[in-house]
Structure formats: structure tokens, C-alpha cells
Specification:
The chain is an all-alpha fold. It is built from twelve helices and no strands. It is globular, with a radius of gyration of 18 Å.
């Protein structure tokens, strides 16, 4: 899983073959719509699309496929600084492949063997990544997931927050943008940086439709 969209990419590849099963096409489309709805803050639409995708995948009785869908959802949460248990995956853990278990642990900020993870996340898992390494990631969603993992594991920094906030801003992803701006605001308030805090409040109001 290179990023939260990995399962969608996998299904797209499957769907490129002649006469692909309907579930592949339906699950792929639903996951794409789920991802976009989540990132732009459309919770009701996101919930509906995820339920549709999961239902299609569950019809295959392949735990690995359903587990990847659940990890997609958990990765999007981490990218938006929502640090909760990945309950949907936990129910499938016993039947999930090692790579899925490793990625789930990685999203929780736990130490895992880097070679079990996608290439772009291995530096984070090994403890060698910093804000510059995250910024160098080509895929913006992978960048946000990695930044969230670093924050969750206590390795965040003001520079990392800036990279994540500007990544979300450039993509127009309201949900993670508000989360990262909020993290920057809390840090500015703790430091007593009043002008910076005021600027961040204006950005939050604008992104939230209040400015």
C-alpha cells in the first residue's frame, strides 16, 4: 500500500482486463469517490461510498481485499490527524497478509520492519525521515499519511506541519488542511506567537467557509 489509494489502483488494474467482474469496477469507482469525499469533508457521501465499496469487496470473501479497504480509510484518517484505532481492520487482522498487518501497525505509529512497507514509507518506519524527506515524496496523499505517522509517533516538527498544510492546500483537500492548520495554530498559541496565530485563524476561517 503506497498510499490510501493503493487498493483503488489495484482494482483499476484488474478492471483493465476484458470482461472484468462487476464488483471490481464498482469497488474501484466507489473507493475513488470515497477518497475524494473524505478529503473534501463530505462525510455523508464518504460513508455511503465506503459502505458500497466494502460490500462489493466482501462479496469476494477475500479478507485481504477488505482489509486493504479498511486500511485505506485508516490512512485517510491519519493524513487528517484523526488518531483512532483501526477497528475495521482489527476485525480482519487474523486473516490478513503480513504486509497489511505491517501497514496497520505503521499507521498506528508503531515500529515495524521497513521492508514490509511500500518503498516511500520505509524511511519513516526506519526513523530516518524528516520534513524534507516527506516533502520529497511525489504523491501528495502519501506525503500526508507519512506526516501523520510522524506526528502520531511523536516525531513531528513545525517544518513537517508546514509541509503537510501546504500539501493539503495545493490539493484543495479541506479536511486535512483544517487539521494541519489547527495543529499549527495550537503550536503558535503555545509559543505566544500572536501574529502567527491570528494569521492561522484567518486561514482556518477561510477554509471552513467563514472568511
Amino acid at each position: 500500500m503506497a498510499c490510501a489509494a493503493t487498493l483503488a489502483l489495484l482494482l483499476a488494474a484488474c478492471g483493465s482486463k476484458p470482461q472484468a467482474p462487476d464488483w471490481q469496477v464498482s469497488a474501484h469507482g466507489a473507493l475513488q469517490r470515497f477518497e475524494q469525499a473524505w478529503l473534501t469533508g463530505q462525510q455523508r457521501a464518504a460513508d455511503a461510498e465506503f459502505a458500497r465499496a466494502r460490500s462489493e469487496l466482501a462479496a469476494t470473501a477475500q479478507p485481504g481485499l477488505v482489509a486493504r479497504a479498511e486500511l485505506t480509510r485508516c490512512a485517510l484518517q491519519v493524513a487528517s490527524l484523526v488518531f483512532e484505532a483501526c477497528a475495521g481492520f482489527d476485525a480482519l487482522r487474523v486473516d490478513s497478509p503480513d504486509a497489511e498487518r505491517a501497514y496497520a501497525a505503521y499507521l498506528q505509529g508503531e515500529r515495524v520492519a521497513p521492508d514490509l512497507l511500500p518503498q516511500q514509507h520505509r524511511a519513516v518506519a526506519s526513523g530516518a525521515a524528516d520534513a524534507k524527506a516527506v516533502e520529497a515524496m511525489a504523491d501528495p496523499l502519501s506525503r500526508l499519511v507519512a506526516a501523520g505517522v510522524l506526528m502520531r509517533s511523536g516525531r513531528g516538527s513545525p517544518e513537517l506541519m508546514q509541509v503537510a498544510a501546504e500539501t493539503a492546500s495545493r490539493q484543495g483537500w479541506r479536511r486535512p488542511l483544517l487539521a494541519w492548520l489547527g495543529a499549527q495554530l495550537r503550536l503558535a498559541e503555545q509559543r505566544g506567537a500572536q501574529e502567527e496565530a491570528a494569521r492561522l485563524r484567518r486561514r482556518i476561517a477561510l477554509a471552513g467557509g467563514q472568511g
